[in-house]
Known about the structure:
The protein has helices at residues 13-33, 37-48, 54-64, 71-91, 99-106, 126-140, 154-157, 198-206, 247-262, 321-325, 346-354, 367-370, and strands at 144-145, 151-153, 190-192, 211-220, 232-242, 268-275, 278-287, 296-297, 300-301, 310-319, 338-345.
Amino acid sequence: MAYTVPKLADYSAAALTSAAAECVRECAREANRVRTVAELKAFRDRWLARKGGVLTQINDLWLKNAPKEAKREAGMGVNQLKARIQEIVASAIAPPVEPALARCETVDRVDVSLPGIRRPIGAEHPVMRASREMCAVFQRLGFSIAEGPVVETDYYNFEALNFPPNHPARDTQDTLFIAGQQSKPQRERLLLRTHTSPVQIRTMEKMRPPIRIVIPGTVHRNDPPDASHSPMFHQIEGLAVDRNITFGNLKGTLDHTMKEFFGSSVKTSFRPSFFPFTEPSAEMYVSCFICGGSGNRESGPCRPCKQTGWIEILGCGMVDPNVFEFVKDNGYDPKKISGFAFGMGADRIALLKYGVDDIQLFFQGDVRFLRQWA
Ligand SMILES: [Zn+2]
């Protein structure tokens, strides 16, 4: 029941004090119930409004009606009461927020001390990790990282690497060409690079010898996907050019990096091969670090080395003088300098290093598989 101002039948000091105390009690109780800004305003108006407010009513009912002999006493009592009521109204506190937020505060309280939402951090992809680790071995030998475009011209992908037009070696790399370029000269036609080797030419055009670079990157070939092939895969290419670079430098560098990457017990073996941009060329094998070179494991024949005890890792060779002819004007005179180059599949070394038997697993995006590298 809301407080209503009673009429006073008795104007004795005791009756006045009692009525005033009751009024203060009710005012304090209403002040405690104030929760919102709107309620605070209604509360203030109810007690202090000049027209019809509780204090105005007290003035009318208690003071004006008082008998003459009690007026002085009643006046003093009412003035004290007004001061007390004004104090209570002034100290009534509404929440310092809008009603919607006020509800939020009482119902869904925000506890800023609770832990936040943890966002899982992704893991480095195994191919990227193997590539980075392999490049790091070369970087410790003084090689720098070089990169280049994935969409290349025929000139950089083939011609400047000693693949003349119509040369049969082009057919060994099933190339994906950008469509609709028949009107362009062949060397300007765009394609998805089939190897990272174009970056060798691009770097030699920009930097004079000596250079030592490793080139990680994505390449594409029109290969149907199977356990060891993918139309998109990754290579790591290397090039060192200086005066007096020999095949001995090539063997020593690669032997060291394979021991660093696969373990100090692996041996390397070089067997003659052919690439258009190197002469002489070789394929490099490492002794099988899975069966220890024996070709057999306790569980049976060793599949990664096909029971031979050796695993082919990369192709390499001395840079063909014909390649240097394309950048001769930038200090690469094949009569004065020499160099070696090599290239390996980053996916393949990741397969070997992590014991994965299907390259497709790397590109299917199955989180259960990739989580193993987290
Ligand atoms: Zn083996």
